[in-house]
Amino acid sequence: MANLRTTMDSAFWDLNISTPQSLDGVSRAVPGDSAPIDGARASRALRIQQLSLLGNGFPLGIIPSFSPSANHKELGSFALQSLLGKAVFGNWWVGLIGQFRPKKLISSIKAEVSASEEWDLPLLKETAKHFLDKSLYAVGLCSQIALTSSSSLLLSTEKHGEKKKRRAKAMLFHKLPDHDITLEAAWPELFIDCKGKYWEVPESISVDCSSLVSESGLRYRFGIHKNNALPQPVGSVDRETPPALLPGICAKAAFSYEKSKDLWRQVETEEDVIKKTETDEFWHPSYDIRLKEPHAAMSGIMGGTCEAWFVGGKDSPQVMGIYSSRAKDRGRFVADLFGSVCCTFQHGKFTKRFGDLTRLDARVDISSASALVNTVSNLYRRTEGNRSPNSRSYPRLNLIFQQQVAGPIVFRMDSKFAFDSSGGRHGPQLEDLMYSLNYSLRILRSGKVVAWYSPKRKEGMIELRLFEF
After folding, report:
1. Is 409 exposed, middle or buried (0-12, 13-18, 19+ CB in 10 A)?
2. What is the pLDDT of residues 230-276, one digit of tens each?
3. 281-291 burial string, b = 16+ CB within 10 Å, else e?
4. Where does residue 34 rank: exposed (0-12), middle (13-18), buried (19+ CB within 10 A)?
5. What pLDDT digit, counting tens, does each position of 113-137 carry?
6. How far apart are CA 363 and CA 358, in angstroms?
7. Single pTM value for the model
8. Which of 209, 203, 230, 244 lies closest to 391, judged by CA?
Protein backbone atom coordinates (compact mmCIF):
# COMPACT_ATOMS: atom_id res chain seq x y z
CA MET A 1 0.00 0.00 0.00
CA ALA A 2 1.00 3.64 -0.17
CA ASN A 3 3.83 4.49 2.18
CA LEU A 4 2.24 5.92 5.33
CA ARG A 5 5.55 6.99 6.83
CA THR A 6 6.26 9.57 4.12
CA THR A 7 4.47 12.27 6.11
CA MET A 8 6.67 11.65 9.14
CA ASP A 9 9.88 11.26 7.16
CA SER A 10 9.26 14.49 5.21
CA ALA A 11 9.70 16.45 8.46
CA PHE A 12 13.39 15.42 8.57
CA TRP A 13 16.34 16.20 6.32
CA ASP A 14 17.09 12.75 4.92
CA LEU A 15 14.09 11.98 2.70
CA ASN A 16 15.67 11.07 -0.65
CA ILE A 17 13.94 12.13 -3.87
CA SER A 18 14.96 10.69 -7.25
CA THR A 19 16.62 13.17 -9.58
CA PRO A 20 18.92 13.01 -12.62
CA GLN A 21 20.39 16.39 -11.58
CA SER A 22 23.13 14.61 -9.61
CA LEU A 23 25.18 11.55 -10.48
CA ASP A 24 24.18 9.77 -7.27
CA GLY A 25 20.55 10.10 -8.40
CA VAL A 26 19.17 11.70 -5.22
CA SER A 27 18.20 15.05 -3.80
CA ARG A 28 16.66 15.81 -0.41
CA ALA A 29 13.08 16.93 0.15
CA VAL A 30 12.89 20.29 1.92
CA PRO A 31 11.77 19.50 5.51
CA GLY A 32 8.56 21.22 6.45
CA ASP A 33 7.06 21.02 2.95
CA SER A 34 4.11 18.77 2.19
CA ALA A 35 4.98 15.09 1.74
CA PRO A 36 6.11 14.20 -1.81
CA ILE A 37 4.35 11.60 -3.92
CA ASP A 38 5.47 8.03 -3.31
CA GLY A 39 6.73 7.55 -6.86
CA ALA A 40 9.26 10.35 -6.37
CA ARG A 41 11.09 8.62 -3.52
CA ALA A 42 14.57 7.48 -4.52
CA SER A 43 15.65 3.86 -4.64
CA ARG A 44 17.30 2.42 -1.56
CA ALA A 45 20.05 0.99 -3.76
CA LEU A 46 23.01 3.27 -4.44
CA ARG A 47 23.06 4.74 -7.95
CA ILE A 48 26.41 3.12 -8.69
CA GLN A 49 24.94 -0.27 -7.75
CA GLN A 50 21.95 0.39 -9.99
CA LEU A 51 24.14 1.25 -12.98
CA SER A 52 26.20 -1.90 -12.40
CA LEU A 53 23.10 -4.09 -12.70
CA LEU A 54 21.11 -2.04 -15.22
CA GLY A 55 24.11 -1.87 -17.54
CA ASN A 56 23.69 -5.58 -18.28
CA GLY A 57 20.38 -4.89 -20.03
CA PHE A 58 21.32 -1.77 -22.02
CA PRO A 59 23.56 -1.46 -25.10
CA LEU A 60 27.14 -0.77 -23.99
CA GLY A 61 25.85 -0.35 -20.44
CA ILE A 62 24.64 3.21 -21.20
CA ILE A 63 21.57 4.47 -19.28
CA PRO A 64 19.64 7.50 -20.64
CA SER A 65 18.08 10.27 -18.53
CA PHE A 66 16.43 13.68 -18.92
CA SER A 67 17.34 16.65 -16.74
CA PRO A 68 17.23 20.30 -17.91
CA SER A 69 20.31 22.41 -17.26
CA ALA A 70 18.84 25.80 -16.41
CA ASN A 71 22.03 27.85 -16.61
CA HIS A 72 23.43 25.99 -19.64
CA LYS A 73 20.47 25.38 -21.94
CA GLU A 74 22.76 24.61 -24.87
CA LEU A 75 23.62 21.34 -23.11
CA GLY A 76 20.04 20.14 -23.48
CA SER A 77 18.10 17.76 -21.25
CA PHE A 78 19.21 14.43 -22.66
CA ALA A 79 22.10 12.73 -20.87
CA LEU A 80 23.82 9.34 -20.96
CA GLN A 81 25.20 7.67 -17.84
CA SER A 82 27.42 4.65 -17.48
CA LEU A 83 29.57 2.84 -14.93
CA LEU A 84 33.10 3.45 -16.18
CA GLY A 85 34.77 1.05 -13.78
CA LYS A 86 34.66 -0.61 -10.37
CA ALA A 87 37.02 -2.50 -8.11
CA VAL A 88 36.59 -4.57 -4.94
CA PHE A 89 39.29 -4.99 -2.29
CA GLY A 90 37.98 -7.16 0.55
CA ASN A 91 35.52 -5.05 2.54
CA TRP A 92 36.11 -1.98 0.37
CA TRP A 93 34.78 -1.20 -3.08
CA VAL A 94 35.12 1.83 -5.33
CA GLY A 95 33.41 2.80 -8.59
CA LEU A 96 33.48 5.56 -11.19
CA ILE A 97 30.37 6.98 -12.91
CA GLY A 98 30.49 9.00 -16.11
CA GLN A 99 27.87 11.20 -17.77
CA PHE A 100 27.77 12.71 -21.25
CA ARG A 101 25.39 15.31 -22.75
CA PRO A 102 25.49 15.01 -26.56
CA LYS A 103 23.28 17.94 -27.68
CA LYS A 104 25.91 20.69 -27.55
CA LEU A 105 28.50 18.47 -29.22
CA ILE A 106 26.18 17.55 -32.09
CA SER A 107 25.13 21.18 -32.58
CA SER A 108 28.75 22.40 -32.55
CA ILE A 109 29.94 19.79 -35.04
CA LYS A 110 26.97 20.44 -37.30
CA ALA A 111 27.73 24.18 -37.33
CA GLU A 112 31.43 23.53 -37.96
CA VAL A 113 30.75 21.25 -40.92
CA SER A 114 28.11 23.58 -42.42
CA ALA A 115 30.50 26.53 -42.34
CA SER A 116 33.28 24.57 -44.05
CA GLU A 117 33.47 24.26 -47.83
CA GLU A 118 35.25 20.91 -47.92
CA TRP A 119 36.51 18.09 -45.73
CA ASP A 120 40.17 18.49 -44.89
CA LEU A 121 42.60 17.92 -42.02
CA PRO A 122 42.06 21.33 -40.35
CA LEU A 123 38.31 20.67 -40.27
CA LEU A 124 38.88 17.32 -38.56
CA LYS A 125 41.12 18.98 -35.97
CA GLU A 126 38.60 21.71 -35.24
CA THR A 127 35.84 19.11 -35.00
CA ALA A 128 37.89 17.00 -32.59
CA LYS A 129 38.34 19.99 -30.27
CA HIS A 130 34.62 19.99 -29.54
CA PHE A 131 35.00 16.59 -27.86
CA LEU A 132 37.31 18.21 -25.33
CA ASP A 133 34.64 20.63 -24.08
CA LYS A 134 34.49 19.79 -20.37
CA SER A 135 30.91 21.10 -20.04
CA LEU A 136 29.74 17.99 -21.90
CA TYR A 137 30.95 15.65 -19.17
CA ALA A 138 30.45 14.82 -15.52
CA VAL A 139 32.24 12.23 -13.40
CA GLY A 140 31.47 10.81 -9.98
CA LEU A 141 33.56 8.66 -7.65
CA CYS A 142 31.85 6.52 -5.00
CA SER A 143 33.39 4.28 -2.36
CA GLN A 144 32.01 2.19 0.49
CA ILE A 145 33.92 0.55 3.33
CA ALA A 146 32.40 -2.07 5.62
CA LEU A 147 33.92 -1.12 8.98
CA THR A 148 32.16 -3.91 10.89
CA SER A 149 29.33 -6.33 10.23
CA SER A 150 26.84 -3.65 11.31
CA SER A 151 28.46 -0.38 10.21
CA SER A 152 29.72 1.09 6.96
CA LEU A 153 31.21 4.32 5.62
CA LEU A 154 30.13 5.77 2.27
CA LEU A 155 32.16 8.49 0.52
CA SER A 156 31.31 10.12 -2.80
CA THR A 157 32.25 13.11 -4.90
CA GLU A 158 31.15 14.35 -8.31
CA LYS A 159 32.19 17.11 -10.68
CA HIS A 160 30.06 18.56 -13.48
CA GLY A 161 32.06 20.21 -16.23
CA GLU A 162 29.76 23.22 -16.56
CA LYS A 163 30.05 23.99 -12.81
CA LYS A 164 33.05 25.37 -10.94
CA LYS A 165 32.57 23.47 -7.70
CA ARG A 166 32.29 19.76 -7.00
CA ARG A 167 29.86 17.99 -4.67
CA ALA A 168 31.06 15.77 -1.85
CA LYS A 169 29.17 13.53 0.57
CA ALA A 170 30.04 11.32 3.52
CA MET A 171 27.70 8.95 5.36
CA LEU A 172 28.38 6.71 8.36
CA PHE A 173 25.70 4.09 8.95
CA HIS A 174 25.45 1.88 12.04
CA LYS A 175 22.75 -0.73 12.62
CA LEU A 176 21.63 -1.64 16.12
CA PRO A 177 19.18 -4.45 17.00
CA ASP A 178 16.20 -2.06 17.08
CA HIS A 179 17.59 1.21 15.72
CA ASP A 180 19.48 2.69 12.79
CA ILE A 181 21.97 5.50 13.39
CA THR A 182 23.14 7.67 10.50
CA LEU A 183 25.68 10.49 10.38
CA GLU A 184 25.73 12.46 7.13
CA ALA A 185 27.50 15.49 5.71
CA ALA A 186 27.42 17.13 2.27
CA TRP A 187 29.17 20.08 0.60
CA PRO A 188 26.86 21.24 -0.89
CA GLU A 189 23.58 19.36 -0.37
CA LEU A 190 20.93 19.41 -3.11
CA PHE A 191 17.33 19.96 -1.94
CA ILE A 192 14.07 20.03 -3.88
CA ASP A 193 10.98 21.92 -2.64
CA CYS A 194 7.30 21.10 -3.10
CA LYS A 195 7.23 23.23 -6.28
CA GLY A 196 9.84 21.07 -7.96
CA LYS A 197 12.60 23.70 -7.66
CA TYR A 198 16.13 22.91 -6.55
CA TRP A 199 18.31 24.53 -3.86
CA GLU A 200 21.93 24.01 -2.87
CA VAL A 201 22.89 24.36 0.80
CA PRO A 202 26.68 24.99 0.94
CA GLU A 203 27.14 22.78 4.01
CA SER A 204 24.68 20.31 5.55
CA ILE A 205 25.47 18.04 8.51
CA SER A 206 23.05 15.77 10.38
CA VAL A 207 22.90 12.86 12.78
CA ASP A 208 19.75 10.76 13.04
CA CYS A 209 18.52 7.83 15.13
CA SER A 210 15.46 5.95 13.89
CA SER A 211 13.70 3.00 15.48
CA LEU A 212 12.47 0.02 13.54
CA VAL A 213 8.72 -0.42 13.35
CA SER A 214 7.58 -2.58 16.26
CA GLU A 215 4.82 -5.18 16.10
CA SER A 216 2.55 -2.72 17.87
CA GLY A 217 3.07 -0.16 15.08
CA LEU A 218 4.99 2.34 17.21
CA ARG A 219 7.94 4.15 15.66
CA TYR A 220 10.05 7.11 16.69
CA ARG A 221 13.11 9.01 15.54
CA PHE A 222 15.18 12.01 16.55
CA GLY A 223 18.15 13.90 15.19
CA ILE A 224 20.17 17.10 14.99
CA HIS A 225 20.84 19.03 11.81
CA LYS A 226 23.04 21.98 10.92
CA ASN A 227 23.00 24.21 7.84
CA ASN A 228 25.81 26.65 7.10
CA ALA A 229 25.72 29.62 4.71
CA LEU A 230 22.89 30.94 2.60
CA PRO A 231 21.15 28.38 0.32
CA GLN A 232 21.36 29.13 -3.39
CA PRO A 233 18.53 28.49 -5.88
CA VAL A 234 19.49 26.36 -8.87
CA GLY A 235 18.62 28.07 -12.13
CA SER A 236 16.76 31.08 -10.71
CA VAL A 237 17.23 33.97 -8.29
CA ASP A 238 13.65 35.17 -7.79
CA ARG A 239 12.36 32.48 -5.46
CA GLU A 240 11.59 32.63 -1.76
CA THR A 241 14.06 30.74 0.41
CA PRO A 242 12.50 27.83 2.36
CA PRO A 243 12.89 28.61 6.09
CA ALA A 244 14.17 25.12 6.91
CA LEU A 245 17.21 25.64 4.67
CA LEU A 246 18.36 28.86 6.31
CA PRO A 247 21.54 28.69 8.46
CA GLY A 248 21.09 27.26 11.94
CA ILE A 249 21.10 24.20 14.19
CA CYS A 250 17.88 22.27 14.69
CA ALA A 251 17.00 19.36 16.97
CA LYS A 252 13.93 17.40 15.95
CA ALA A 253 12.01 14.40 17.31
CA ALA A 254 8.94 12.54 16.11
CA PHE A 255 6.83 9.53 16.95
CA SER A 256 4.08 7.69 15.11
CA TYR A 257 1.59 4.89 15.58
CA GLU A 258 0.60 2.87 12.52
CA LYS A 259 -2.24 0.38 12.06
CA SER A 260 -3.79 -1.48 9.11
CA LYS A 261 -6.89 -3.64 8.68
CA ASP A 262 -7.90 -5.91 5.81
CA LEU A 263 -11.50 -5.58 4.70
CA TRP A 264 -11.02 -8.73 2.67
CA ARG A 265 -8.03 -10.62 1.27
CA GLN A 266 -7.64 -13.64 -0.99
CA VAL A 267 -4.71 -15.45 0.59
CA GLU A 268 -2.26 -17.11 -1.78
CA THR A 269 -2.44 -20.90 -1.80
CA GLU A 270 -0.15 -23.65 -3.09
CA GLU A 271 -2.35 -24.06 -6.17
CA ASP A 272 -1.68 -20.43 -7.07
CA VAL A 273 2.10 -20.88 -7.32
CA ILE A 274 2.41 -24.50 -8.47
CA LYS A 275 1.30 -24.96 -12.07
CA LYS A 276 0.72 -28.47 -13.33
CA THR A 277 0.96 -29.82 -16.86
CA GLU A 278 0.33 -33.28 -18.24
CA THR A 279 3.96 -34.28 -17.66
CA ASP A 280 5.31 -31.99 -14.99
CA GLU A 281 4.66 -29.26 -12.46
CA PHE A 282 6.60 -26.03 -11.96
CA TRP A 283 6.81 -23.04 -9.66
CA HIS A 284 5.01 -19.99 -11.08
CA PRO A 285 4.80 -17.23 -8.42
CA SER A 286 3.61 -13.66 -8.80
CA TYR A 287 5.89 -11.25 -10.66
CA ASP A 288 6.06 -9.29 -7.37
CA ILE A 289 5.50 -10.98 -4.01
CA ARG A 290 4.08 -7.72 -2.59
CA LEU A 291 1.37 -7.72 -5.26
CA LYS A 292 0.41 -11.38 -5.06
CA GLU A 293 -2.88 -11.19 -3.12
CA PRO A 294 -6.07 -9.41 -4.20
CA HIS A 295 -7.45 -7.43 -1.28
CA ALA A 296 -9.08 -4.31 0.05
CA ALA A 297 -7.60 -2.66 3.12
CA MET A 298 -7.60 0.46 5.23
CA SER A 299 -4.62 1.79 7.11
CA GLY A 300 -3.74 4.85 9.12
CA ILE A 301 -0.93 6.59 10.92
CA MET A 302 -0.86 9.39 13.46
CA GLY A 303 1.90 11.03 15.40
CA GLY A 304 3.62 14.19 16.46
CA THR A 305 6.78 16.16 15.85
CA CYS A 306 8.68 18.81 17.78
CA GLU A 307 11.68 20.87 16.79
CA ALA A 308 13.90 23.43 18.46
CA TRP A 309 16.24 25.91 16.76
CA PHE A 310 19.26 26.62 18.94
CA VAL A 311 20.86 28.93 16.39
CA GLY A 312 19.11 30.77 13.61
CA GLY A 313 15.68 31.30 15.19
CA LYS A 314 13.37 34.09 14.09
CA ASP A 315 15.24 36.68 16.20
CA SER A 316 18.74 35.48 15.33
CA PRO A 317 21.11 37.91 13.60
CA GLN A 318 22.06 35.09 11.23
CA VAL A 319 18.56 35.11 9.77
CA MET A 320 18.23 38.89 9.73
CA GLY A 321 19.39 40.24 6.39
CA ILE A 322 18.55 37.06 4.49
CA TYR A 323 16.08 37.89 1.78
CA SER A 324 13.21 35.62 2.76
CA SER A 325 9.79 36.81 3.83
CA ARG A 326 9.25 33.44 5.52
CA ALA A 327 12.25 33.66 7.86
CA LYS A 328 9.92 34.77 10.65
CA ASP A 329 7.96 31.50 10.30
CA ARG A 330 10.83 29.51 11.77
CA GLY A 331 10.27 29.76 15.51
CA ARG A 332 12.52 28.72 18.38
CA PHE A 333 10.33 25.78 19.36
CA VAL A 334 7.52 24.18 17.37
CA ALA A 335 5.36 21.13 18.14
CA ASP A 336 2.73 19.69 15.85
CA LEU A 337 0.61 16.66 15.00
CA PHE A 338 0.19 14.81 11.70
CA GLY A 339 -1.84 11.92 10.32
CA SER A 340 -2.68 9.91 7.21
CA VAL A 341 -5.49 7.56 6.19
CA CYS A 342 -5.17 5.21 3.24
CA CYS A 343 -7.60 2.97 1.33
CA THR A 344 -6.25 0.25 -0.96
CA PHE A 345 -7.99 -1.94 -3.52
CA GLN A 346 -6.24 -4.56 -5.64
CA HIS A 347 -7.72 -6.89 -8.25
CA GLY A 348 -5.64 -9.74 -9.64
CA LYS A 349 -2.67 -11.80 -8.48
CA PHE A 350 -0.12 -10.47 -10.99
CA THR A 351 0.74 -13.96 -12.28
CA LYS A 352 -0.91 -14.04 -15.74
CA ARG A 353 0.32 -12.29 -18.85
CA PHE A 354 -2.63 -9.92 -19.24
CA GLY A 355 -5.33 -8.31 -17.10
CA ASP A 356 -4.15 -9.73 -13.78
CA LEU A 357 -3.38 -6.54 -11.86
CA THR A 358 -5.38 -3.39 -11.22
CA ARG A 359 -4.59 -1.48 -8.08
CA LEU A 360 -5.61 1.84 -6.56
CA ASP A 361 -4.22 3.49 -3.42
CA ALA A 362 -5.88 6.64 -2.08
CA ARG A 363 -4.19 8.39 0.84
CA VAL A 364 -5.17 11.61 2.62
CA ASP A 365 -2.33 13.41 4.43
CA ILE A 366 -2.57 16.05 7.12
CA SER A 367 1.03 17.19 7.50
CA SER A 368 0.37 19.88 10.10
CA ALA A 369 -2.68 19.85 12.36
CA SER A 370 -1.94 23.32 13.74
CA ALA A 371 -1.61 24.87 10.26
CA LEU A 372 -4.86 23.19 9.19
CA VAL A 373 -6.74 24.49 12.25
CA ASN A 374 -5.37 27.97 11.65
CA THR A 375 -6.42 27.89 7.99
CA VAL A 376 -9.93 26.65 8.79
CA SER A 377 -10.26 29.30 11.49
CA ASN A 378 -9.25 32.05 9.06
CA LEU A 379 -11.67 30.79 6.44
CA TYR A 380 -14.48 30.67 8.99
CA ARG A 381 -13.76 34.23 10.04
CA ARG A 382 -13.28 35.21 6.39
CA THR A 383 -9.95 36.84 7.14
CA GLU A 384 -7.05 36.69 4.72
CA GLY A 385 -4.39 38.82 6.36
CA ASN A 386 -3.38 36.27 8.99
CA ARG A 387 -3.45 33.20 6.83
CA SER A 388 -0.39 31.03 7.09
CA PRO A 389 1.67 30.61 3.92
CA ASN A 390 2.76 27.20 5.15
CA SER A 391 2.56 24.67 2.30
CA ARG A 392 1.22 22.12 4.81
CA SER A 393 -1.87 24.17 5.64
CA TYR A 394 -4.18 22.02 3.54
CA PRO A 395 -4.86 18.27 3.38
CA ARG A 396 -3.42 16.40 0.41
CA LEU A 397 -4.93 13.52 -1.51
CA ASN A 398 -2.40 11.09 -3.01
CA LEU A 399 -3.65 8.68 -5.68
CA ILE A 400 -1.58 5.78 -6.99
CA PHE A 401 -2.99 3.84 -9.94
CA GLN A 402 -1.29 0.69 -11.25
CA GLN A 403 -2.34 -1.38 -14.25
CA GLN A 404 -0.64 -4.40 -15.79
CA VAL A 405 0.25 -3.79 -19.44
CA ALA A 406 1.73 -7.15 -20.38
CA GLY A 407 3.55 -9.76 -18.34
CA PRO A 408 5.82 -8.06 -15.78
CA ILE A 409 5.26 -4.56 -17.22
CA VAL A 410 3.03 -2.28 -15.14
CA PHE A 411 1.93 1.27 -15.87
CA ARG A 412 1.81 3.47 -12.78
CA MET A 413 0.57 7.00 -12.22
CA ASP A 414 1.21 8.95 -9.00
CA SER A 415 -0.72 12.16 -8.41
CA LYS A 416 -1.13 14.60 -5.54
CA PHE A 417 -4.02 17.02 -5.02
CA ALA A 418 -4.32 19.86 -2.51
CA PHE A 419 -7.64 20.95 -1.04
CA ASP A 420 -6.60 24.58 -1.39
CA SER A 421 -9.37 27.18 -1.62
CA SER A 422 -7.07 30.22 -1.71
CA GLY A 423 -7.30 32.67 -4.58
CA GLY A 424 -10.94 31.85 -5.17
CA ARG A 425 -10.17 28.30 -6.30
CA HIS A 426 -12.60 25.53 -5.45
CA GLY A 427 -12.08 21.79 -5.32
CA PRO A 428 -8.84 19.79 -5.32
CA GLN A 429 -5.89 21.35 -7.15
CA LEU A 430 -3.37 19.11 -8.92
CA GLU A 431 0.06 19.69 -7.33
CA ASP A 432 2.24 16.94 -8.72
CA LEU A 433 2.08 14.11 -11.24
CA MET A 434 4.44 11.34 -12.24
CA TYR A 435 4.17 8.60 -14.86
CA SER A 436 6.22 5.42 -14.81
CA LEU A 437 6.61 2.03 -16.43
CA ASN A 438 7.71 -0.71 -14.04
CA TYR A 439 9.31 -3.95 -15.17
CA SER A 440 9.09 -6.43 -12.28
CA LEU A 441 12.02 -8.81 -11.89
CA ARG A 442 10.59 -12.09 -10.64
CA ILE A 443 14.05 -13.41 -9.80
CA LEU A 444 14.40 -10.62 -7.18
CA ARG A 445 10.94 -11.42 -5.77
CA SER A 446 10.05 -7.74 -5.35
CA GLY A 447 12.59 -5.86 -7.46
CA LYS A 448 11.79 -3.79 -10.53
CA VAL A 449 13.26 -1.51 -13.14
CA VAL A 450 11.42 1.82 -13.13
CA ALA A 451 11.40 4.34 -15.96
CA TRP A 452 9.66 7.52 -14.74
CA TYR A 453 8.91 10.99 -16.05
CA SER A 454 7.78 14.07 -14.13
CA PRO A 455 5.96 16.70 -16.27
CA LYS A 456 6.28 19.21 -13.44
CA ARG A 457 10.08 18.97 -13.29
CA LYS A 458 10.50 17.95 -16.94
CA GLU A 459 12.80 15.19 -15.74
CA GLY A 460 12.99 11.47 -16.18
CA MET A 461 15.34 8.59 -15.43
CA ILE A 462 15.64 4.82 -15.13
CA GLU A 463 16.15 3.23 -11.70
CA LEU A 464 16.39 -0.16 -10.05
CA ARG A 465 14.19 -0.39 -6.96
CA LEU A 466 14.00 -3.20 -4.43
CA PHE A 467 11.15 -4.04 -2.03
CA GLU A 468 9.41 -0.74 -2.67
CA PHE A 469 6.27 0.65 -4.22
Report:
1. middle
2. 999 987 666 688 888 999 999 999 999 999 999 999 998 888 788 77
3. eeeebbbbbeb
4. buried
5. 887 777 777 778 888 888 999 999 9
6. 17
7. 0.91
8. 244
